[in-house]
Amino acid sequence: MASLLKTYDPSEVFISWSNSNGTNVEMNEGFAPDTFLTISPDAPKFNTRVGIGGKVARMYNSIETATIKITLLQNSNTNKELMTALNLAGVGGGNEDIGSITISDDSGTILVSLMDCYLESIPVFALSKSYGTVEWTFKCVFLLGNDEDPFIR
Predict the structure, then answer these.
(1) Exposure string over 9-36, b if 16+ CB within 10 A, otherwise e
(2) C-alpha distance from residue 40 to each of 92, 117, 118, 138 (Å)
(3) Which of 41, 107, 112, 120 could tie 103 with a disulfide, CB 3.0–4.6 Å?
(4) 45: CB partners within 8 A, 6+ apart
(5) Residue range 82-93: average pLDDT?
(6) Are 138 and 67 in contact (CB under 8 A)?
């Protein structure tokens, strides 16, 4: 009988950002010690309205954008790669900085692909006597999971 027990290993989380200008940033080191990845849909899938008589209606929301925040230690080499990519973004008015992000957890069940992603802005940097973190924000046009469940493979 197969075990129901699963072990999560944060070192088995891999994030890759590839865009059309040839930039491929593999983020598999230098993550912050606490929460290092959040994916937040920018709107709920459905909006609900309750009328005065108690009747309920729901409306499908076609907004499919999401925000990804990746937090790295300030000494991660990935910071340099992302800053280089951000500096090339929009040069000449093109869209070469727009690409896809794939997030996988090889020790668990998470597999997420996000399309049409770009770095939203230069992150805030703060230096102190101890190690700090740098939070990178990506905007993505839509989120893809597998066929069974958007976040589970």
Answers:
(1) eeeebebbbebeeebebebeebbbeeeb
(2) 30, 13, 15, 11
(3) 112
(4) 60, 61
(5) 76
(6) yes
Strand order in the sheet with 111-119: 24-27, 13-19, 99-105, 111-119, 133-144, 66-73, 37-41
Q: Residue 17 in contact with residue 100, Cβ under 8 Å?
A: yes
Express each pLDDT in 25-56 by its tens digit. 888 888 998 899 999 988 888 999 999 999 99
- Answer for the pair 59, 50: CB distance below 8 angstroms, yes or no: no
Give the CA diameter of the chain.
Answer: 60
How far is 91 from 93, CA to CA, in rounded Å? 5
CB contact at 8 A, 74 and 80: no
Residue 145's pLDDT band (cuts 50, 70, 90): low
